[in-house]
Each structure stands twice: as C-alpha cells, then as structure tokens.
Design a protein that fits this description.
globular; 12 helices; alpha/beta; single chain; 8-stranded parallel barrel; 43% helix
Length: 325
C-alpha cells in the first residue's frame, strides 16, 4: 500500500467511526515529506466534515502573573528563573469585566482566566469566583479557567458558576515530563483533569512542542490526548524565554508542526484543536496553513507573557482562507 493510500484508509476509518490505532498514528506522524501535503489535506477534510468552517476564537486574561512555585523549564513566570517579567496579583473584578467585554466586542467566543500558581488558595479562589460571577452577570461570554490543581469541591463550584471548560495542559509526553518539571508529576496533571471531568466541566488540555522532545515523544503526547478525548486541545509552539533553561532551544521545522496538528485531528475528529502560543512568532503565516491542516481554533490578542495579533487581523486571516470567525 502506498503512503497516499494509507492516509486515505486512515481517513476512512475516522469517517466511519472506527478511528485510528496508535500504530496508525505512528505511521501518519512519520509520513514522508513528499506526502505531507496529502496528510494535511486529509486532516483538513476531517476538520470540515466534523466541525464545519467555524474557527473557535478565544482570548486570555493572565489574572495573576507572579513568581510561581513550580519549576517548569519553559516558563517565564517560574520563581526558579530570573526572567525579568512583571508580576502582579489578582486585579479587581471591574478590570477583568472590562477586558472580558472588550474581548466579546472583538468577536471572541470564550474568555479564559489564567493564574500563575500551583493551585488557588481558598481566599484567591473565592476572589476568582466573584470575578466569574460578575463576568456572567455583566458580559455574557463563555468563561473558561486555568487555575492549576483543583480540589473536587473547587471544580464543582466552577461548574455551578457555568464555567464551560477547564484548561490543564499535560505540557509534554510522560517520558519527557521529569526533564521539564520536578515540582509535580505527570500523574498530578492527569488527576486534575479527572477531577474537572468528574465535576462535569469540559476539558481543554494539550502541551508545548519544541521543548527538545523527539518525534516519538510528540506521538506519545498525541496518543494520550486521543485517550483523554478532551473537547479542546491547545498546542503551543515553544517561544524560548530568556532566563529559562530552554532559552537556547532551537526551533522545530515547520513540517514537524504540521505533522503534529494533522495527526491530532485524525485522533480527535470532533475536538477544537487550537493553535496557541508561538503562532505569530514561530509561523510565517500566523497559523494560516495549520488552520487548513487540522486546526480549527486560535487564541487572539496576546498570551500569558507575550503579545499577539490584534483581533481584527486574525479575523481577516480567517476570512481570507474561506473560514468563519
């Protein structure tokens, strides 16, 4: 069987509801360069068939940027590294509500509140809940959260506040994780995802590619995401932060990025697959190719520690390729 025929056979497995196996995913990820466009095209066809032309557009608010107690080697917010990043505590609810309203006015469908800590204290969690309540009452945009480790009681409270989705990234493959973080484990992250799921929250999880992992480890991450079947996958492309252990990490070739997004789409035909950090600085086209290679979501107007495209520019990009913002 030719590579082209194999890709089409895998696509048919997805369309028929059988799905692909881990062995299929491995072969797809190792598609020869000359067949990469075919892989991307088939991933795009899966995206359109299951999700239509709509692109999920999200904005973030880093509501607490501070010296985090975790030692994730890629992160400019870790207290372990001197990165010179501005720090601040939780802002007033009025400030967050204003930004949420601006995001809605700019066309964002969801607004994710992110905090740089291991887990929220009881006092901080209460403050975040108040912020969510005010966004619900005054703005009416879909709220998502990324607040670190959760207790079952906290997850249930978020569900009661109509938080739609909880983000907690796996970051990388299990076999790579101990090289990336030593202050908590991969299993800790899986446990939090389980707590969120048990509370009835939708899941958003994913990771960062370009950390120095092998292609096999990217496959490992993709297969784990397929097993979890989250409603949303967020894939970041490492932007090395000065002062972190990965500041000199070399960039991934564009072909590896396309492979990853395409194979995740074969594994997760119904999920939102979102191009996250690094989209503007590590891709020549801000994600235009990836939105035609399996992705169907973007984060716009900036990230946790760096800026991004203006929302208007991203809407124009989406419409340019015949999709809908």
């Amino acid at each position: 069987m030719s590579t082209r025929e194999f890709i089409k056979e895998c696509q048919e497995k997805v369309f028929s509801g059988i799905g692909i196996s881990p062995d299929d995913a491995e072969k797809l990820l190792n598609t020869p360069d000359e067949n990469l466009k075919e892989l991307a095209r088939c991933a795009n066809e899966i995206t359109r068939d299951f999700n239509g032309k709509k692109v999920d557009v999200e904005q973030l608010n880093n509501i607490k940027k501070n010296a985090c107690s975790e030692d994730c080697t890629f992160c400019g917010q870790s207290a372990f590294f001197d990165t010179g990043i501005e720090t601040y505590q939780l802002p007033s609810p009025e400030e967050v509500v204003s930004k949420a309203q601006k995001a809605k006015n700019e066309g964002a469908e969801s607004y994710c509140l992110v905090a740089a800590w291991r887990e929220p204290s009881a006092k901080d969690f209460e403050k975040v809940c108040n912020i969510i309540s005010q966004i619900n009452n005054k703005v009416g945009i879909s709220v998502e959260c990324s607040l670190g480790f959760l207790t079952p009681e906290q997850a249930q409270k978020l569900k009661e506040l109509n938080v739609k989705r909880y983000n907690h990234n796996l970051e990388t493959a299990k076999s790579k994780f101990s090289e990336i973080c030593t202050t908590h484990t991969y299993e800790d992250r899986l446990k939090t995802l389980g707590i969120a799921r048990d509370a009835g929250l939708e899941l958003c999880t994913g990771g960062i590619i370009g950390l120095g992992e092998t292609r096999e480890q990217r496959l490992e991450l993709a297969i784990e995401l397929g097993r979890l079947y989250p409603e949303e996958v967020t894939i970041n492309i490492l932007v090395p932060m000065p002062g972190t252990p990965l500041e000199l990490q070399t960039d991934l070739p564009n072909s590896e990025i396309v492979r990853m997004f395409s194979v995740i789409r074969f594994l997760l035909p119904e999920s939102v697959i979102k191009i996250s950090g690094g989209r503007e600085s590590k891709l020549d086209d801000s994600g235009e190719e990836l939105l035609q290679s399996g992705a169907n979501g973007i984060i716009t107007a900036g990230y946790l520690t760096m800026g991004g495209n203006e929302a208007k520019k991203d809407r124009e990009l989406i419409e340019k390729i015949g999709l809908q913002a």
